[in-house]
Amino acid sequence: MLSSKAEDYLEAILNLTEDKGYARIKDIAVALNRRPPSVTEMVKRLDEMGYVVYRKYEGITLTEKGKERAHVIKDRHDTLKDFLMMINVPENIADKDACTMEHELDATTIKNVRNFVDFVNTAPDSPQWLEHFKKFCKTGKHPCQ
């Protein structure tokens, strides 16, 4: 089982390789607000566990095992962030909170949150109750009263 810290590293490596085409120690350090020696230590551990391939001076790539795990983590993060933003949490806070929650919630919970987000986003019309909720968040009063 990976620690939440190790999962954060896999997610950061995935995001960097999707954005830049590669991930380096200093890029990961910036993304996670960590010191490069700490990043190197964790990347070496992830390499030993078979999640990444680390070649000094060449960068870091995810193995298939690493890609699979990183995509699961990223999907959990994106799902939770989408849900939090849907309930009127500002994006910067939703992103930070999703990062904390993604490691703690059961897969069934995440699945149902994703189903809820997808259900709301694919509704033919914007659900009226969602607009009512946004007004309630601003005023503290139910708009139907």
Automatic annotation (TrEMBL):
Domain HTH dtxR-type span(s) in chain numbering: 1-63
Coiled-coil features, chain-numbered ranges: none
UniProt key word Metal-binding: no
Keywords: DNA-binding, Transcription, Transcription regulation
Annotated InterPro entries: DtxR_MntR_Metal-Reg (IPR050536), Fe_dep_repressor (IPR001367), Fe_dep_repressor_sf (IPR036421), HTH_DTXR (IPR022687), Iron_dep_repressor (IPR022689), WH-like_DNA-bd_sf (IPR036388), WH_DNA-bd_sf (IPR036390)
Keyword Transcription regulation tagged: yes
Family affiliation: Belongs to the DtxR/MntR family.
Name of the protein: Iron (Metal) dependent repressor, DtxR family
Protein species of origin: Methanohalobium evestigatum (strain ATCC BAA-1072 / DSM 3721 / NBRC 107634 / OCM 161 / Z-7303)
